[in-house]
Amino acid sequence: MNKNIQEAISLVREMLPELQMIKGVEKVIFPPFVALSAIAEILSPTDIMLGAQNMHWEERGAYTGEISPLMLKGLCQYVILGHSERRGYFGETDEIVNRKVKAAFAHELIPIICVGESLEQHEEGKTEEVVSAQVRRVLAGLPEEQVRKLVIAYEPIWAIGTGKPATGEGANSVIGTVVRGTIAEIYGEEVALSVRIQYGGSVSPKNIAEFMAQPEIDGALVGGASLRAKEFVEIVRISARLKGVGEGAISSSKRKPTKLQS
């Protein structure tokens, strides 16, 4: 919940010239709902995509204040679902997130599904148990072809906005063993390897290289740093060098890396 319409426009315009020059990674910006139309117009002639920060599962009805998939269809390409703040402040469960994921696919929106454990769960050694259960529930009933298209963001709640990110090695282990491993158990290894999985949680220009050097991490869901144009551009630039598809890039898989959020 940052930036009014004019501030959002100014931020995107400040980022745009340099962002357009960076190739090899997919770049997606997620402004507040009120700025979506304005940002969509600015981004339309570029290769930068647009996403929404949340969405209701119903197409229409008596849900005052909510945004339906019909309102987003044709306006943006992505939608973030199950963010820890939605879960923590608004009581969203994995079952609710699952309904939203199915609604997103029904209306040609690609969901970025957030999973992650709390500090208490982390300290009690329950990371694998909690994250694996989240993945199973949010993917329940999805066909293989949809799972291949979605994006999962591993966001340990204890690292979000705290300035205390997970280590690259630690995040890589959870993403590879738990998140991708759970998908492999359900859909098979080939499907699991095709799913893009990101890290989110206090990502900055100073630590992004540590995360992008990891083989299981395909991109980042960037929070506070995306509110500062120069920092976000630098994060994308470093990611493209380490993960991008193209000359000079180092990539450990065929998955198309993504760099998300503003």
Labels describing this entry:
45% helix; 8-stranded parallel β-barrel; 12 helices; alpha/beta; 262 residues; single chain; 8 strands; TIM Barrel
Q: Which fold name is given in CATH as the topology?
A: TIM Barrel
Strand content: 5-15%
Q: Which class in CATH terms?
A: Alpha Beta
Strand order of the largest sheet: 1-2-3-4-5-6-7-8
> Any idea what the CATH architecture is?
Alpha-Beta Barrel
Query: In the residues, how many domains can be counted?
Result: 1
Order of helices and strands: HEHEHEHHEHHHEHHEHEHE
Largest sheet: 8 strands, parallel, barrel
Count of extended strands: 8
Radius of gyration: 17 Å
Chain oligomer state: single chain
Kindly, what is the distance between the CA atoms of the first and last residues, rounded to a whole number of angstroms? 11 Å
Regions with pLDDT < 50 over 5+ consecutive residues? 247-254
Describe the structure.
- By secondary structure, the chain is an alpha/beta fold.
- It has a single domain (5-260), classed as TIM Barrel (Alpha-Beta Barrel), CATH 3.20.20.70.
- The protein has helices spanning 5-21, 36-43, 69-72, 84-90, 94-106, 119-123, 127-138, 144-149, 168-187, 189-194, 208-212, 229-243; strands at 26-29, 49-52, 78-81, 110-115, 151-154, 196-199, 219-221, 258-260.
- Helix 1 runs parallel beside helix 12 and helix 7 crosses helix 9.
Give a brief rundown of this model:
The protein is 45% helix and 12% strand. By secondary structure, it is α/β, with parallel strands linked by helices.
